[in-house]
Hints:
The structure is a single chain. The chain is α+β, with helices and mostly antiparallel strands. It has one domain: Electron Transport, Fmn-binding Protein, Chain A (Pnp Oxidase, Chain A, Roll), CATH 2.30.110.10. 23% of the residues lie in helices and 41% in strands. The protein contains 3 helices and 8 strands, in the order βαββββαββαβ. It has helices spanning 17-24, 65-75, 107-121; strands at 9-10, 29-34, 40-45, 48-50, 55-61, 82-90, 93-104, 131-144. Strands 1, 2, 3, 4, 5, 6, 7 and 8 form an 8-stranded antiparallel sheet that branches. The longest helix has 15 residues, at 107-121. The model has no long low-confidence stretch (mean pLDDT 93). It holds the Pfam family PNPOx_N. Residues 20-140 form the Pyridoxamine 5'-phosphate oxidase N-terminal domain. This is Nitrilase. It comes from Streptomyces alfalfae. Keywords: Oxidoreductase.
Amino acid sequence: MSPNPPSRQVDPRDPPEPYLSFWRERHLCTLTTPRPDGSPHVVPVGVTYDPAEGVARVLARRTSRKVAHVLAAADNGAGPGARVAVCQFEGRRWATLEGVATVRTEPALIEAAELRYEERYGRRPSPNPERVLIEIRVTRAMGKA
């Protein structure tokens, strides 16, 4: 039995076209955030990815656990935000983005994220006054597309 091959690193600012194309397709993703005890909290989300800015975006309700985890990590002195990962897969294709997440509340940023979501997922999110944006500064990308 051969050992597992190493992760397939991708330049997060200049990914190959098949990888970027995979991130444009409509796929449900997961977001993994750290709980206060350090254990992973994994939830399904929609994600948009902009390699030119080095950012992935997740829309969320202000009172969600994922938002609380990101805020708690910043409050606990873990740095400017939480270390998180977003992932998607289909068959043997997969893609993961890792980075530092912060919660953004600026209406213009949320609206821009909603437009990106609509572009990827084919529908505009329903209006929600509790909506915030989890913005992930991508530091690592891996996958096989």
